[in-house]
Amino acid sequence: MSHSPSYYRRFLNIIIASLSTSIAHAESPPTAPVKGQLAPEVKVEKLLNSPEGAGTSWQALRGKVVVLEFWATYCAPCVGAIPLMNQLEEEFANQPIVFLHITNEDEATIRKFLETRPIHGWIGIDTEKATMKAYGIKGLPRSVVVGKDGRLLGWTTPFQLVNDPEMLKSIIETGSSPRLTDTPPALVDPLQGVPRAEQESNPKDSLCDIVIRRSTSNHSKFDSGGGSLGDSRFGERLLGHISYFWDVPEPRIVVEATMPPEKFDIVTRTKKADMPEFRDAMHRLIEVTFEISVTPDKRTMDTYALRVLPGREPQLAPLLLSGVYTDESKELFAPSKAIFERMKAGEHFFIATGPLNMLANSVSAEVNKPVLAELGDLSTKYDGVYIICFPYEKGKVASFIDGLQKNVGLALVSERREVDVWVVRKAGTVK
User: Fold this and answer.
1) Is residue 376 a part of any domain in this protein?
2) Residue 363 belongs to what H/E stretch?
3) What pLDDT does 160 receive?
4) Is residue 307 part of a domain?
């Protein structure tokens, strides 16, 4: 989608001067209810996926643990958690527990979404945000657990629920769990550390904040606000930011301009991050800030074709977060305890998660060349979120290719091909 220069001038006049824009509104920020008290009433305009005659009053739900899952279709972490929550709900299908997914989007949007992304639990339509406000929801996804007597037991996230199914078992059996928090899990404020003078108003009153600054981070970090705060990237080179905001692997970016050596933070707080218009505006803002242009082109270059080995069934495993082991301090992520211990001992693994059609991008980052996915009907056959994991010698492309072939059943075939690229040039340079 393109816009006139006057559109961009109006947009840039708002945010470039201080690299942060804030628009006040009168609505007070919601306050979370207190753990141990009777949970606020769940007010929804309509229930989907629920049994006939089902209600959301605590009297109607008495005797059952209730997991309130606050989500939205525009929230990437929410959508990523759906298949995992579906598995969890199947595991507890015969238990006295109800999973109620509450969204502020309209019924038509949700029904269209469910055509390709089914949700097994009940779905509550709350376009007035009555329940979201009652529970002080400030970011997505968020999970609230209510006991059999209608009292609020605590807060968590869908990922914590899936990672620790014993927590729900304990709640059903004993009515409590020490793993639940007393208050909603904190969101990372992407404007944390930005001088007050640069914010122009209270960040809680802001509809849209954007900051581009030189980074003080020692390593790259990504934070997602779950559709409420937008996405924030810290300690990243400009090339990495271009790769993210233009949604293109770095090997498909051709640099014909002098890139700054520093690392930068680009942080956003907006509910419009998934809108094409916002991405268009971010493209222009980055180009103006760094005095570059980023334009599509075609180039003939060395590539790899990603193909299924003849006669082999690819070794693909559904991602089950209940079996995931992590150590955030060491940035370790493993699909099993055995692999986790091997990683802690220093062994290097390639781990890719997500829909199969995104695999080529992950592989491209490892081999530092464009990778063309030629997987036939594999992406539709293996629908869902998968994990691919195998050991290889870090920095050795031949070891990676061999590991991909032996462990996964996929081959990388070297070919010289014409591919779509994005070219970074100094602003004003004639092509």
Assistant:
1) yes
2) helix 359-367
3) 79
4) yes
